[in-house]
């Protein structure tokens, strides 16, 4: 099954592949549009439309939107709208679409949903991001940033739901060495 996984944000992460593994992954920066939500979503629509045309996924899985405690209204609207546009585009292109819970993805990929309590509160988000990048590297990938690593984690999680024996492994590190 061809699967496109998306970590939705202004710097969105993506991973595309199938039962054989990941064929493409990375991150894409959407334009900084301030409160111009329409231009922001139009740029995402164009990127996603091109990605669906290029990769022809049979399913799209995206990380459920979760907002930080202090988020301005424009950011809230953008984040939730990215999920809505994804679902609408999938519906229009006849591609199955679902969302995945962030805590389930983290437990699957790095073995915990939250940073340990010993990590200072202000450093917990960075700890989780670093753990995800580190795990992606241990599995043979060279994620460009934490967004790409998050998408690889989502891909691993989504594939494991379909095949409990699926193991995400890449050979990018060996190729680059």
Distance between the amino and carboxyl termini:
30 Å
Which radius of gyration do the C-alpha atoms yield?
A: 16 Å
Uncertain runs: none
Strand content: 15-25%
- Estimated structural class: alpha/beta
Strand segment count:
5
Mean pLDDT, nearest integer?
A: 92
- Classify the fold: give the CATH topology: Nucleotidyltransferase, domain 5
What is the CATH architecture descriptor?
Answer: 2-Layer Sandwich
Question: How are the strands of the largest sheet arranged?
Answer: 3-2-1-4-5
Helix % is 40-55%
At the first level of CATH, the class is Alpha Beta
Tally of structural domains: 1
Major sheet description: 5 strands, mixed
What is the succession of H and E elements?
EEEHEHEHHHH
Total number of helical segments? 6
Q: What coarse outline follows from CA principal-axis ratios? A: globular
Instruction: Give the name of the CATH superfamily.
Output: Ribonuclease H-like superfamily/Ribonuclease H
Could you please describe the fold and organization of this structure?
The structure is a single chain. With 177 residues, the protein is of the alpha/beta class. It has a single domain (3-176), classed as 2-Layer Sandwich (Nucleotidyltransferase, domain 5). 48% of the residues lie in helices and 18% in strands. It is built from 6 helices and 5 strands. It has helices spanning 37-55, 73-92, 102-110, 124-138, 146-162, 172-176, and strands at 3-7, 11-18, 21-29, 59-63, 96-100. Strands 3-2-1-4-5 form a 5-stranded mixed sheet, with helices on both faces. Helix 2 (73-92) links the parallel strand 4 (59-63) and strand 5 (96-100). The longest helix is centred in the middle third of the chain and has 20 residues, at 73-92. It is globular. The two termini are 30 Å apart.
């Amino acid at each position: 099954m061809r699967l496109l996984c998306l970590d939705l944000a202004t710097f969105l992460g993506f991973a595309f592949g199938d039962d054989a593994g990941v064929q493409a992954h990375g991150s894409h920066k959407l334009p900084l549009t301030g409160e111009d939500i329409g231009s922001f979503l139009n740029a995402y629509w164009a990127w996603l439309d091109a990605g669906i045309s290029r990769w022809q996924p049979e399913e799209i899985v995206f990380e459920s939107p979760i907002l930080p405690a202090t988020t301005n209204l424009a950011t809230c609207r953008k984040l939730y709208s990215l999920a809505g546009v994804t679902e609408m585009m999938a519906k229009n292109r006849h591609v199955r679409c679902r969302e995945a819970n962030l805590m389930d993805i983290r437990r699957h990929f790095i073995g915990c949903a939250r940073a340990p309590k010993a990590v200072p509160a202000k450093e917990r988000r960075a700890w989780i991001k670093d753990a995800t990048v580190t795990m992606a590297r241990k599995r043979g990938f060279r994620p460009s940033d934490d967004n790409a690593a998050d998408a690889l984690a989502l891909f691993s999680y989504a594939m494991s739901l379909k095949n409990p024996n699926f193991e995400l492994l890449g050979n990018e590190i060996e190729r680059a060495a």
